[in-house]
Amino acid sequence: MEKEIRLVFSPLCIIVYRMDKGEVRSLEAVAIIANVRAGSADAFGEIVEHYQFPIIRYLYRLTGDYMTACDLAQDTFIQAYKSILKTDSEIHLKAWLYRIATNNARQYHRRRKILSFIHIENMRRAEIPDNGSRPEEIGEDMAIQEVLRKIPSEQRTCLVLHYVEGFKYREIAETLGITEEAVQKRVSRGKQLFRRLYEGENK
Amino acid sequence: MNCKDLEVLLSAYADGELTGVQRDFIEEHLAGCAECRARLADYRKTSQQLLSLRKTPEILDISKATMSRIKLLETPVKLRRWLRPALIAAPIIIILAIVLPLQLSDSSLGPSGIIAKAYAAGSGLESYRYMKDDYRQDSPSEETVHTYHAEIKYTTPDRYHMISETLQRDSAPLPNHIETIRIGDQAYTNIPNVIYEYEEEWFEQMTPTEDKTLDFLNLLAEIETLEDESIDGADCYHYIGEVDIDKFLEWSRPGFERMYDRMDKYLPWGMTTDLEDWIEQCNSSYLTQDMTFEFWIGKDDYLLRQAKLVYQTREGEHSTWNKYKATGIMHYYDFNEVITIEPPLDESGELLEGWSSYTIEPLEIPEEPASITTSIAPRKPSGPQNIPDVFIKALAVTEKLESYSITSKTCEHFNNGWNQSSISIYERGGDYLYHALVEPNDEYEKAYPPTGTMELFIIDDRVYTRNFVTPLWSTDDFDEIAPTSEKNLIVLEMLFDIERLPDEEINGTDCYHYRGILDAEEYLEWVYPVWEEHFTKANEMQKETSGVDLDFELGWKTVESIYRTKEMIYEYWIGKEDYLIRKRVLTQRDWLENPLPLDDLSHISTRQFIAEYYDFNEPVEIEAPLDESGELLEGWVQTTLEE
Known about the structure:
Radius of gyration of chain B: 32 Å
Strand content of chain B: 25-35%
Helix content of chain A: over 70%
Structural class of chain B: alpha+beta
Strand order of the largest sheet of chain B: 6-7-8-9-10-1-2-3-4-5-11
Distance between the termini of chain B: 112 Å
Low-confidence stretches of chain A: 1-28, 113-136
Oligomer: heterodimer
Shape of chain A: globular
Order of helices and strands of chain A: HHHHHHHHH
Mean pLDDT of chain B: 72
Radius of gyration of chain A: 18 Å
Number of strands of chain B: 22
Number of helices of chain B: 16
Low-confidence stretches of chain B: 75-110, 170-174, 364-375, 443-451
Number of strands of chain A: 0
Structural class of chain A: mainly alpha
């Protein structure tokens, strides 16, 4: 079946995109925030453009549902925008966006539990990701994602931040507002649990 | 040291997160401990698996959609109102003068009579079954996928059984096959680990009964008649209409509010998002979609047989749950058949395996207004009333008036503010010199009537109308229908508990100020023949144009229910020197168990109709809507009044 937007951004492209635009642009973040505060909503567009892919991917791995991830990403940016206007203090943009996204994902899981019980019509249905991989890879990916979903959200958040988003433990600690020791513990426990569950599923 | 204690450090080491002393220590330990080396290998393997998650599906560009939402934030958000789609509750003169002619001319009248009957028929049902099926299509070129199927049995008042099957894989932590039963105050479900229990009212709200589906009819912008079709062997009227999204969101708001409250209550953390933000989130995905509602109503019994709701995401827009098109079909059948609904118990009365049960508690919501308080009888006058002299004089003076103008406003009270919903201007320069302009002033009123601004001129025997395609009225009709000053005074003789309030000045004139409550029964008795005559006339015309017979009983019941369930408080300001009425305010609200003070406007059902009278016996210039060459202006229709 043909898909119109198939592989517009392959995984490789995203990495290239990040390398290319990423770190250079982030230096401009401070200037952008200043512009947003000065009343230019358009300036914020740059932040959205720059961070949307990592944030969507992060949310996708946390929630397991692609369309939800896109939606939560939008909410994340909108909340970020609102808060930029509300505060004058200096913001570590990246950590801060991830923190909002983390909260949104947690919220989503709580909401989801309830919503799915009352079967509101057409509530978000899970999307099976199509990343252009071979069938067995998709199976593997789904199995990993499935196991990930069973890990408590505190540990899962740390795992995704570290392995998927490439955060150092120190950055995770900063983003989540916890100590580095706590991050070490969560990652370690998350991995052990992941291993147990994964082997249990695939024996 | 026990190797178990090293797990955390070992994990960090595997991730390259250890430095200095710690790293040296671990490396030294690893050199001499085979168990930890094996564990390290495990950690590394797990890390590899997790790293594979960096690959993602194609990523949508959400920047445009996000930015347009952000720009929306900058425009002030209109005060949201929750308006129950209700019958227009206005004084009868206004009903007659405005609603009736409008209905006559409105193309949706055909369906509207049938819809009224469908409501009546639906509310008389004792049992039925229904099926609901959802379909999804992700793009025009893809095939439609059947995603959800449910079968429901329902018997009034409170037995309900639903089996639902999610046909698409769902990541929800729930089984795809769900069964729920409600019998009285007992609920049963096969969902494991139910943590939320449902109060009575919530359950009722979630029970998808036929009348709830019919509610959708009130949300339609415009209804189009399609060719009749047969459903389950029954000939059906067949209509389609576009759902007015704003109305839909207003209608769905109480449900979202309730859901928010529940989540706030049940979640250990409570809700961290603000209610308005949360509702906005819920609403946002509807704003990018078009919704149409198609329905089939039995010709013989007026029962809703089938309804189809189609959501389509507009091109270039994004919706949370609908990539391209989502369809829900509701199919009703087995009306009033014997339907048994049994609890999931075995012979010894034990719950079947996999089932759990709980008791549905009645929900108390103190701030919820008693919406239709039919059980509360209107207050009645305690005995014969003394009509103040001032009223008698006012009646006499008004009858002699040659000309005057009236401005009237309809206002709705909401969230401690007044929302003016329409404004009308009437000018009368003599027996047959008359001008009326009715301007809806908010979205709600604009939808009822869908025609927008209405205007009417009567000059001698010529009638000019705009958006008011009146049938050929006779002078008799006009005399009855025109909302003239005298007519508004009729109620002066039907008030009780009349009290005089401190004098007030209205437009520079010192006025007496009186207040009284309308005796609903007396009013209904007076108005019945008027209503009957107009109804009959309206029905004749209706039959001619669409062949549909209006239900007189239903129409009259509507009028009765308005007057019997609403407290109508009238206030008059009457000039001290000339006894001319300068202002009249009708405050209308539900009769409450414990009546509020008359000047308390806080109840949610409160509406006000304010009319000001001025320019008495001044020359009124009323000119026909003609251009210089004497041609009718665009959009106007001219007819002739018959003697």
